[in-house]
Each structure stands twice: as structure tokens, then as C-alpha cells.
């Protein structure tokens, strides 16, 4: 199946090679840098990842905070929910190696690569749509989420935005779920992926991405399944792609 069919108008792929198989930097390059920090995103871009993925929550005062967990405990020297702190309070925390917690707009300005913005908190959907519209980012940013309703909200507020449904525990019906919310791609836990599901998704016109691919065996499996790309923590996977074509 020709992969070129999955390119949509305005999609900012780096080069023609990226059309056949995308490598996506997970929370930047979290295998070698503090996740979801400016340092991690800069490293992902420097290593040549085709797309950079990040996670979004809302702070107490409505800022689009880049962090994976709902609490700050795991990745900072603080404790408690993000939603209970203002952005100024969050900025006081160490997010690893002296890095500070960034907001979405800072990442947009800091790197030039295409982005996948994952809505972790469904309440962030409206705020993200407003930023994408105000800064004319719909061609550069693909919105992804585990929350079907969040994707539907973004699509309603920002017609034409590219979206992808993320799933960890799923069955063949995940294809129908993606189509129902107008998504153009699936981003799925590779441990549950089957050739049947990938072929059904491709037949429906959906791209299929696998996560998290951190070993050469996982990369070979991804190529064997005919995936359109992988999400990875490590730059070595980006460099290995040319050997698994």
C-alpha cells in the first residue's frame, strides 16, 4: 500500500522519506533527557525526529502546562495536582536537571518541528483550540488524545485540524471510534497491535502509529505490521529506521 496516500494538505513533513515512516519523539526525547522539558524537545529536534510529541494539562489559572501526569510528584521536586497550582507556582519546581515546567506556547517557539499535542486533561481541549487558531498552527500541530470527547471538541472548534485517537486497551472497534470523532490517525500501544487491525485502519484511510518503540525488535515488528510510524524515547530508533525499511 502506498504510504503517500496518508499525506494531507498542509502536513509539514520534513522530507519525502518521512512520508513512508515517521519517527515521533516521546515527550521530546525522554529516554535521554528530562521528559516534557525544553531541553528534551530541543534534543529531539537535534536528533532529527520527524515529529515531537508532548502532553498538556491546565494549571489553576488556565495555562497549557506541558506535563504527562496529573500530579507533579513523579517528574518534579514538588507534590500535588497540577490543577491546584498557578503557573507561577509550577515554574518554581525543578522538572529535572534544573529545567522548569514549560507551557505549550514556549515549545511552539523553541522548536520548528511538527508537533503532536496530547490532551491529557479533557478540559484543555478548548484552550488548545484557541491557541492553535490564534497562532495559525493547524498545519503544524496534530492534536491527539485518549479522550474521544476531547478530539470531538477540538474538531468542532477548529474545523480542519488533524487529530489522532490514542489507545492502550482497545479492540478492533478502535477504528470505528476514530472515524466517529473525525480522527485521521490512530496511536496505539504496540503490545496489542495486530495485522488485522492495521489493515482495517488503512482501508478506512487512517494512519497507524505504534508506541512505545524502544528496541530494534519492536522496530522490526512495527515495520512488519506496516505501521506508518512509531513513538520512541531514544534517538537510536530514529537512526535505525533506515536499516529496517
From TrEMBL:
Residues 21-242 form the GP-PDE domain. GO terms for molecular function: phosphoric diester hydrolase activity. It holds the Pfam family GDPD. PROSITE patterns: GP_PDE (PS51704). InterPro entries: GP_PDE_dom (IPR030395), PLC-like_Pdiesterase_TIM-brl (IPR017946). GO terms for biological process: lipid metabolic process. This is Glycerophosphoryl diester phosphodiesterase.
Amino acid at each position: 500500500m502506498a504510504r503517500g496516500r496518508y499525506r494531507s494538505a498542509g502536513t509539514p513533513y520534513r522530507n519525502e522519506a518521512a512520508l513512508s515512516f515517521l519517527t515521533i519523539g516521546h515527550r521530546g526525547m525522554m529516554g535521554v533527557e528530562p521528559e516534557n522539558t525544553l531541553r528534551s524537545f530541543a534534543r529531539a529536534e537535534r536528533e532529527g525526529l520527524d515529529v515531537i510529541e508532548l502532553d498538556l494539562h491546565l494549571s489553576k489559572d488556565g495555562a497549557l502546562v506541558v506535563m504527562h501526569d496529573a500530579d507533579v510528584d513523579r517528574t518534579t521536586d514538588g507534590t500535588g495536582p497540577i490543577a491546584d497550582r498557578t503557573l507561577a507556582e509550577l515554574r518554581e519546581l525543578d522538572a529535572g536537571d534544573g529545567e522548569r515546567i514549560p507551557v505549550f506556547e514556549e515549545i511552539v517557539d523553541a522548536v520548528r518541528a511538527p508537533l503532536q499535542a496530547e490532551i491529557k486533561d479533557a478540559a484543555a481541549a478548548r484552550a488548545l483550540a484557541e491557541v492553535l487558531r490564534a497562532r495559525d498552527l493547524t498545519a503544524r500541530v496534530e492534536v491527539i488524545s485518549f479522550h474521544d470527547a476531547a478530539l470531538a471538541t477540538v474538531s468542532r472548534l477548529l474545523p480542519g485540524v488533524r487529530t489522532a485517537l490514542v489507545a492502550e486497551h482497545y479492540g478492533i472497534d478502535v477504528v470505528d471510534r476514530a472515524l466517529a470523532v473525525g480522527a485521521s490517525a490512530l496511536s496505539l500501544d504496540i503490545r496489542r497491535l495486530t495485522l488485522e487491525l492495521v489493515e482495517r485502519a488503512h482501508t478506512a484511510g487512517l494512519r497507524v502509529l505504534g508506541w512505545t518503540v524502544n528496541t530494534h525488535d519492536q522496530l522490526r515488528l512495527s515495520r512488519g505490521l506496516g505501521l506508518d510510524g512509531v513513538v520512541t524515547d531514544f534517538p537510536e530508533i530514529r537512526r535505525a529506521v533506515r536499516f529496517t525499511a
